[in-house]
Amino acid sequence: MSLPEPLPALEIVELARIDGSDETLAITPRWFPMDRLAASIRCMGVVTPLHLQPAPAGKLRIAMGFRRYRAAREYGFRKVPALVWTRASDLQLFDCALAEKVTGPLHDLERARALVKLRAQFGVEEESLIDRYLPLLNAPPSRHRLRVLLRLGRLDEALQRAVHRSLDPETAFRLAAWRVAERELFLGLLKRYEPGRNRQRELFGLLDDLRSSERRRGSGGLDRVWQASGASEADEDAGTVRPLRFRRILDCLHRLRRPRLSRHQDRYRRLKGGLKIPPQIRLQVPPYFEGDQLSVSFSCRNQAEFRHLVGRLEEMGGRAELGRIFELL
Fold first, then answer.
1. Are strands 79-84 and 50-54 parallel, antiparallel or unpaired?
2. What is the reported pLDDT for 4?
3. What pLDDT, on a 0 to 100 scale, did the predictor assign at position 2?
4. Burial status of residue 291 (CB atoms within 10 A of its CB: 0-12, 13-18, 19 or more)
5. Which of 47, 83, 91, 253 has the maximal Cβ count within 10 Å?
6. What are the backbone angles phi and psi of residue 61, rounded to the nearest 5°?
């Protein structure tokens, strides 16, 4: 990116002159971890100069080097090397900061924050964001990708932190419509149990459906769902390992969402028992009976056992119990 002045001379600047609270040109959120950078600065000091520009009241504003500044402060440094730009505009410096940033790994939250600032602070038009800045940020130059990143950049900090940990962005967008207390309940579960993306979506879908039902009835919200389903009790069961507790929470919510689920499960167990299935044959219904196919598998040690099990399967195929199991799906 071109600048309207030659590279300034390197200076040694006192940290007290720098206004670290002014994040007009910051790209990386303040709360991003910086353990490796901090450890390096603690041992070696600040090697790469900060880029600064004059600010009101004789202070200097950071254009590049926010994390280096915070690490230097944390470890008690009083001075840092810096380049002070006096004629470059904010947008020119921001462009340079982006060009420097993309030389390393870039998180979608950093892309999102940069695009939101370009649109809101600098008035850059969407076409320019798509054609010029998305390729610079190593993102596909499409309107859909731009809209997703802008939505991501406008989420509140709690949701952005959750996305940074593991939350699926699409779930975060839908979660933004929830009340704060309801969001805190969901995010607390993610933090305690650290489920994968599929389990996150399953949990969110259950809570969102139940929350919508409660709101239509005007009978409360997620707090009542949490208590009435038994999920609260499962969550507080310290004697059960975390994966099983999370499984119990999902089971509780599924049963509340589908009141007939418990009856289906009991009936399935009775019907399956009536089939007297040998242990080599495994019969499995879809989770929570949400599907239309049974899964059948078997294992054997020789040809004779294979033929015997095939015969048992043929016999089971004519039993009324099997037909009733299909009716549960």
1. parallel
2. 60
3. 58
4. exposed
5. 253
6. -105, 145
Structure tokens at 91: 């947008």
The dihedral built from the CA positions of residue 120, 124, 126 and 132, taken in this order, carries a sign that is: negative
pLDDT tens-place string over residues 248-299: 999 999 888 887 667 777 888 889 999 999 999 999 888 777 788 889 999 9
Instruction: Report the number of secondary-structure helices (H) and strands (E) in the chain.
Output: 17, 7
Half-sphere exposure of 172 (CA within 13 A, CB side): 24
CA atoms in the 13 A half-sphere facing the CB of 159: 22
CB 247 within 8 A of CB 193: no
Q: Which of 73, 50, 149, 143 is nearest to 107 (CA)?
A: 149
* Residue 6 φ/ψ region, left for φ over 0, alpha for ψ in the -120 to 50 degree band, beta for the rest: beta
End-to-end C-alpha distance for the chain, whole angstroms: 61
Structure tokens at 291: 């599907």
Q: What is the per-residue burial (b if ≥16 Cβ within 10 Å, else e) of 173-201?
A: bebeebeeebbebbbebbeebebeeeebe
Query: Angle 17-21-26 (CA atoms, 0-180°, nearest 5)?
Result: 105
Rounded to an integer, what distance in angstroms lies between the CA atom of residue 61 and that of residue 190? 37
Contact 122, 97 (CB under 8 A): no
Q: How far apart are CA 297 and CA 284, in angstroms?
A: 9
Structure tokens at 190: 């993610």
- Residues 260 and 254: their CA atoms lie apart, in Å, by 10
51 three-class SS: strand
pLDDT value for 221: 80
Query: In this structure, are strands 281-284 and 295-298 parallel, antiparallel, or unpaired?
Result: antiparallel
The structure tokens 């969110």 sit at: 204
β-strand partners of 50:
82
Per-residue burial over 16-30, b if 16 or more Cβ lie within 10 Å, else e, is eebbbeebebbbbbe
